[in-house]
Design goal:
mainly alpha, rod-shaped, 47 residues, 0% strand
């Protein structure tokens, strides 16, 4: 049982790390989509 608890703790720590990385990645993506959206509003810039 102690082994299972250790595995669970390790797993939750891993998930927390992934979530933090995902949050920062998501904000970067949001910035990219925002810039891309601005380009779509002004198509003459891209062409």
């Amino acid at each position: 049982m102690a082994g299972n608890t250790w595995t669970a703790n390790k797993f939750f720590t891993f998930m927390r790390t992934i979530k933090k990385k995902y949050e920062s990645y998501k904000s970067k993506l949001k910035l990219l989509f925002y810039k891309h959206g601005n380009f779509q509003k002004n198509p003459d810039i891209t062409s």
